[in-house]
Amino acid sequence: MKIIFATGNQGKMREIREIIGDMEAEVLSMKEAGIEPTIEENGSTFVENAVIKAQAAAAALPMDDGLRDCVVMADDSGLEIAYLQGEPGVYSARYLGEETPFDVKSADLLRRMADVPEAERNARFVCAIAAVFPDGEVVTTQGMIEGRIGYELRGNNGFGYDPIFYLPELGRTAAELTDEEKNQISHRSRALELMKQELKKRKFR
To answer: Quick one: which of 198, 177, 201 has its CA closest to 187?
Structure first.
């Protein structure tokens, strides 16, 4: 089985390959599959955006190179901060502009949360995954992990907002976890584990 994942984020592709590694599947990024779909993420939810990306990537597959029988997946994920009414939410990657580094985005969120007491710093990472099967069927799954916004950037592992996402039960941020630790509890791993079950139901193993 071949799975094409509609992302160009290498950190995300590393996570995906590690989580799906126990399946007999070759996981390709869009670049590795040789496709460059036009994707307009105009959905109002993570699920809607994941479906938009997966369907756009599936529609861009060439007809004559054997990729038409693969499963095309995409995710949309982000950080929701309760005190900020769910911001940055579906705009997590575009917060302050798509080209703005995540350490700058994170620093701005820390600034906005500077005077917020511990009890009101609740946040969660959310991930929705959409899969488009060769017959056109679309299946979606979701995963999330609860935590808090920290007070400073901590940790050098992970990517995105991981350095400010503090996990009280572990006493570390997501960026201070090892890859193995993160893949056991992350929002993406939870959504992918559910998607693996959907693949198995459809005899993709």
So the answer is: 177
Strands 2-5, 26-29: pairing is parallel
Structure-derived torsion over alpha carbons of residues 83, 43, 58, 14, reported in degrees to the nearest 10: -10
Chain centre to alpha carbon of residue 64:
30
Q: Which token pair is 80?
A: 């929701």
Confidence (pTM): 0.90
Place of tokens 């809607």: 48
Residue 110 and residue 167: Cα distance in Å, rounded?
Answer: 16
**C-alpha torsion sign, points 65, 68, 70, 75:** positive
Q: Does domain 2-201 have CATH number 3.90.950.10?
A: yes
DSSP bridge partners of 28: 4
Catalytic residue from among 76, 103, 135, 162 = 76
Domain boundaries, the chain: 2-201
pLDDT tens for residues 22-58? 888 889 998 888 888 888 889 999 999 999 999 999 9
Identify whether the C-beta of residue 110 lies closer than 8 Å to the C-beta of residue 173: no
76 is catalytic: yes
